[in-house]
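call fold(seq) -> tokens
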Amino acid sequence: MSGRAWDNMRKGILFGLCLIIATLCITYGIIIKAAGSGTGFYIIWFVIAAVLAGLGVIIHWQLWSRIPFGIRIAAAVLCGIFLLSFVIIEGCVVSHMHDEGEDGLDYIVVLGAQMRQNGPSVVLQYRLDEAIKYLNDNPDTICIVSGGQGYNEPCTEAQGMAEYLEKKGVPKVRILMETESTTTAQNISNSIQYIREGATVGIVTNNFHMFRALQIAKQQGLTQVCGIAAKSKPLYLPNNMLREYLAEIKYLFPTKPIRVILQTESKDIHSK
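ret:
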């Protein structure tokens, strides 16, 4: 095969790969939207698809060489930074997805998520069911349920969680309610007032959210803290993992563009 023929084949493969991945991103975005999650975050999958399609066009029509050298270098550097940061952050997220906590904790804090008219959303049920398992195995542990009331919720998340736990057999005396928080950071900071100094604490949230939740808890002064990871819907996992990457970037480098993107997120998909 001649060098020209090999070059054309390579360009064709890369072009086709870009289009295939772009199509998958569009399909996944449509699925997330159709799932009725109430989130606008699915739009980012269309943005990724557009970028990949544009990259495919650049490769197929050999437009890369026509782009000014400085812009090409800047684009390459930004891509490298993105890939490196993505691998590192997602590695940290994955490392805490199976946290099981420690036996005999003084408190567990269940982070709030969407409450519906008929009870907790599936995401929140996963957290509550994980909390129930822990409380049954550790009868001396106190449970703090944390979450305020969103504009589309029938009650505070804390109240809905407490009612769910009581229906499942958790005694009312073991449940404390924090009813004001609207973010993960507030979940933890507002719950600290119920925790005696030096106590051991477990944070209960979904697996993809655990790394950042623990990061926030330690930043706010909880030194004896561990994670108790609940499962999450496999369908939403790519969406949630991508969002966690952006949320971690926002946490480390608070910027307006990232805040705007994350404001489209629904509690059904994520905790906050």
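The chain has two domains: 3-66, 107-262.
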